[in-house]
Fold each of these.
Amino acid sequence: MNDTTDRRIIVALDFDDRGAAEALVARIGGACGFYKVGLELLTAAGPDLVRGLVDQGHEVFLDLKLFEIPNSVAGAVRAAGALGASVVSVHSMGGTGIMAAAVDAAREFPGLRVIALTVVTSMTGSDLADIGIGAGTDEQVLRLARLAAEAGCDGVVGSPREVGPLRKLLGPERLIVTPGVTLPGGEVGGHARSDTPWAAFAAGASHVVVGRSVTRAADPVAALRRIAVGR
Ligand code: C5P
C-alpha cells in the first residue's frame, strides 16, 4: 500500500483457492488496499486468508450476507470483528431484529462496520411477488434501506441504478457499496444493471466492488489505475 492507494475501490477475491487469491493480491501490491472476501473463498481457504490480508495492512469486506436468528448473526459478526474485518454484510430482508443484533455485536470492534443488502441484484419484481412481496424492486430497495438505517447499520449495498435514490435517502455519511460495475470495452458479462465505477461514484457511491474487470484483466494494476483516475 502507498499513500495514493484509493481505498474506495474494493477488489472482489472471487476464487475457490487460497493460492490463486494470494497470488493476485501479491501481483496487485500497493495498488489496492481493500478486498472483498465472500463465502466461496472463505469456505475454500479458511479464516487465515483474512488474517493474512489484515496483517498486510489491507482492509477486508467480509461478505457473509448474514440471514439467521439474531443470536447467530451476532456471533458471526463478532467472529468477523475478531478476524479484523472492516465491513461485514447482513440481509435487511431478515428484518430489524437481525440488523440490530449485528450492529450491537459490532460495537465491540470500533473498526467494524455493518452494511445491509436490500434486494439482491438478480431478483426481479416477479421473484418478489413469488415470495409474497407486492412492491417493485426499486420501492423495496428503498424500504429496506430505510429499515437498515433505522436499525443502525452503517450503510447498504446498492447497484449502480440504485445509488442515486439511496444517497438521497441515507444522507452523506452512510456507506453505499456498489457492485455490478464494469469498465467500458470490458468483456465481463452477467450484469443486468451495470454501469461504470465513475458513474457509481458520481451518483453517490462511497465504494465500488470490482471483480472480474480487475482480477481477469491482462494487467490488473492498470485496470485499477484506470478506475482510480476516472477514465
Ligand atoms: O461481476 P464482478 O466480477 O465484478 O463481481 C464482483 C462482485 O460483485 C461479486 O462478488 C458479486 O457478489 C458482486 N455482484 C453483485 N451484483 C452484481 C454483480 C456482482 O452483487 N450485479
Amino acid sequence: MSATASLAAPRPAFDAARVRRDFPILEQRVNGRPLVYLDSAASGQRPLPVLRAVERYETHCHANVHRGVHALSQAATEAFEGARERVRRFINAASVREIVFVRGTTEAINLVAQSFGRPRLAPGEEILITALEHHANIVPWQMVCEQTGATLKVAPIDRRGELVLDRFLELLSPRTRVVAVAQVSNALGTVLPVKQITDAAHARGAVVLIDGAQAIPHSRIDVRELGCDFYAFSGHKLYGPTGIGVLYGREELLAAMPPWQGGGDMIRTVSFEKTTYNDLPWKFEAGTPNISGAVGLAAAMDYVKDLGLAAIAGHEQRLLELATAGLARIAGIRIIGTAVRKASVLSFTMEGCHPHDLGTILDAEGVAIRTGHHCAMPVMTFFDIPATARASFGCYNTEEDVEALLAALAKAREVFG
Ligand code: C6P
C-alpha cells in the first residue's frame, strides 16, 4: 500500500468482533446501553497489548532515562530508545536521529514553527496551508507570522470539502518557504494528495510539513516515499497513550535547527559562559520525557501492524460506506464533507437539531460521537454552520455499531420532528 493510496486499497477479511475483544473499555455499558464508541478521530481506545506494555514498563522498568548507571535506568533507557527505533521502522525514517518524541501533533507543529520557521522567515515570505486545517496547523503559523512578518496563505476548498488543487498550485510561489497540510481532514474526512503537494512544493523550493494526526491510524506511512520534510502525529489517535507523539524531521533540517526548549537532556555541556547542545534527536527533548508513553506507542504500532493497516483501512471504509448510505435515508441529514477520497470520518448536521443536542440524544442511547467545530472553525465558517456531529470509525467498530448509530439518529429525528 503506498503512502497515499492506502485508503483505496483492496479489502482483506477483517474480524472486527475479535479485534473489539482486545479493547476492555468497550465492554462497558453507558447510560444502560452497550457502549458504541464512534469518536476515534478524537482519541482511539487502547488494546490490551498497549495496556500491558505500559503496565509492564511501570511495574518492572521505570526510572529516569539517559542519566543513571543503575540497572533500572538502563532498562528504562533501553525501553525508551527501543521505542524510538520501532517508530523509525513504522514510518520508515532513515535514522532514529529523525524521530523526536513530543507530546503530540500540536507540539510537533509548534516545534517546527518556532525552530525551523521563526529563525528563517522574513517579511514578504510565505507559509501556505489549506482551508481545512485543524487549529494546530493554523495557529502556530499565525504566531510565527506575527513574530517574523511572514504571510500566511490559505488554499481554498470546494463544497465537497476537497482541496482546490489548481488554486493551491497557483498559490505556491517562489516566496513560499513552508507548506503545511493535513493528510486527512479531521472535520471532513478528506484525504489530501500529499505526495503531489510535496513534489510541487519541493519544485518551488519550499519545505513541507504533513499533519498526519488523522492519517496515521488509517494508512501505512512511509516518510521517505512521501518525501516530506516533517511529519507530525499523536500516539493517542493510533490506539496508543495520550501525551506522546512524534515529530519526524529530515536529519539535515533538524541538524540545522536550534533547540526550542532548554533544560536537562538537550545539552552536552553547560557553563555560564557557553552551553553546547546534545546530538539529535535529544537536542529537541528537554526534560524528562514521557517514557511509558513511548513504550505504549511502540506497542500500539506493533498492534496495528499485526492487524494490518490495509485490512483496518478496508474495514473502516466499508463502515463509512454503510453509514454514509444509512444517513442518506434519514430526512434532514446533510453530510458535511463529500470528498471522493475520505478516511472514516463522517460529519453531518440534522435539520432542526443543534449538533450538541444530537450528541446528547445519542449519548443517552450509548452512542458516543463528537459534536462541535472539531478545532477547525474555518471549515465551519466555510460551510456556514456553527458545528457538526461527527462519527468516526476505528479498527474495533462493527456493522452493529453503524446500525446503532442509524437507529439512534432515527430516534433523534422523531424527537425533533
Ligand atoms: N483532533 C479531533 O477530535 P493533538 O491534540 O496534538 O493530539 O492533535 C491535534 C490535531 C492536529 N491535527 C489534526 C488533523 C487533528 O485531528 C488533531 C486532533 C481531535 O479531531 C481533537 S480536536
